[in-house]
């Protein structure tokens, strides 16, 4: 069932006003006639000519729009200087209404072009169907459409131009939720290492649970890779690292560690390097982004430690990789636990809680309940200390000076952090990052 219809008039010349009105009216009549009740939302995408009067242009289409009362609302005209700008604006309208199944009605010659824009600006959550812009002959046109082809038929240089257009548009967008903010620990020496933990402010992601500096994209979320890439670019500019030499762990909720410079595993939750100018990172949206720094051997690491990774010892696995690969002394390694869900909010089933209870009974609150509260930070600290990390070389929520504390509870601070536990499946992600300065 089509939830929304996008009519692409972007490429039609301005001097074909009468033809455009006729095409639009015929198309809208077909939609109104053939759609099941309730009829879908309709968006009309047009080019905003340089120096033209916006209201005048929209007014020229009103005769074709005003009579269609059977639709959920009057078709909405979206004008912009570029296809990227128009399509991104329409994506915002779709996301506001949580719509995912879209029919695109467009000139035949625009189809391959439009598919490239869609591949970059949307994720697999959305389903697109395509229909040629013409007078539809029957109701089947609105219900049966060809599947979106994954083959790229445009010349490489045309695809590159589209990517450049999208990037320029996204770079022009204002930051949301205030200035980009980076939390830093005083434990890690800033004359040797560049590091930090991100918050949710300062990016361009607009969906409420992803707003605004979301740094992860997947097929199950509505933020595409190009938006995450732009958020990362802004972070890199603010922090001072090169986004082209940025490496993030490939989360598997386990304890594998990737040694930079060696063959990269398909998935891993820890990463270490002694290469200068390479920024490594671990995500967190309740799970702990853990950073490691050895100022003596000048090596660093990052790990993603959720409850599974904590029990599997991912943090000590990262420490052990630094020791074995770079000759680090475990007593020289500094460890900082970033923002993560706290024992005030985080619950697990009793059988999982039992494993934390075996590490230390203080890691579990209300142990006799069906879903006890779990302290994955305390468990991580205990496992690190058991592995030889000095207590004074670990920074986590035991730090009481709020000016230095960076291990906030993500679930308790919706204004600062993303939280899977709090926000559900379409959640945003912050990261912890670290690199060795040149």
TrEMBL record:
<keyword id="KW-0007">Acetylation</keyword>
<dbReference type="GO" id="GO:0005634">
    <property type="term" value="C:nucleus"/>
</dbReference>
<dbReference type="GO" id="GO:0005507">
    <property type="term" value="F:copper ion binding"/>
</dbReference>
<keyword id="KW-0391">Immunity</keyword>
<keyword id="KW-0395">Inflammatory response</keyword>
<comment type="similarity">
    <text>Belongs to the purine nucleoside phosphorylase YfiH/LACC1 family.</text>
</comment>
<dbReference type="GO" id="GO:0031347">
    <property type="term" value="P:regulation of defense response"/>
</dbReference>
<keyword id="KW-0862">Zinc</keyword>
<keyword id="KW-0399">Innate immunity</keyword>
<keyword id="KW-0256">Endoplasmic reticulum</keyword>
<keyword id="KW-0597">Phosphoprotein</keyword>
<keyword id="KW-0576">Peroxisome</keyword>
<dbReference type="Pfam" id="PF02578">
    <property type="entry name" value="Cu-oxidase_4"/>
</dbReference>
<comment type="subunit">
    <text>Interacts with FASN. Interacts with SDHA. Interacts with ATF6, EIF2AK3 and ERN1.</text>
</comment>
<dbReference type="InterPro" id="IPR038371">
    <property type="entry name" value="Cu_polyphenol_OxRdtase_sf"/>
</dbReference>
<dbReference type="GO" id="GO:0005783">
    <property type="term" value="C:endoplasmic reticulum"/>
</dbReference>
<protein>
    <recommendedName>
        <fullName>Purine nucleoside phosphorylase LACC1</fullName>
        <ecNumber>2.4.2.1</ecNumber>
        <ecNumber>2.4.2.28</ecNumber>
        <ecNumber>3.5.4.4</ecNumber>
    </recommendedName>
</protein>
<dbReference type="InterPro" id="IPR011324">
    <property type="entry name" value="Cytotoxic_necrot_fac-like_cat"/>
</dbReference>
<dbReference type="GO" id="GO:0017061">
    <property type="term" value="F:S-methyl-5-thioadenosine phosphorylase activity"/>
</dbReference>
<dbReference type="InterPro" id="IPR003730">
    <property type="entry name" value="Cu_polyphenol_OxRdtase"/>
</dbReference>
<dbReference type="GO" id="GO:0006954">
    <property type="term" value="P:inflammatory response"/>
</dbReference>
<keyword id="KW-0378">Hydrolase</keyword>
<dbReference type="GO" id="GO:0005777">
    <property type="term" value="C:peroxisome"/>
</dbReference>
<dbReference type="GO" id="GO:0045087">
    <property type="term" value="P:innate immune response"/>
</dbReference>
<dbReference type="GO" id="GO:0016787">
    <property type="term" value="F:hydrolase activity"/>
</dbReference>
<keyword id="KW-0479">Metal-binding</keyword>
<keyword id="KW-0539">Nucleus</keyword>
<keyword id="KW-0808">Transferase</keyword>
<keyword id="KW-0963">Cytoplasm</keyword>
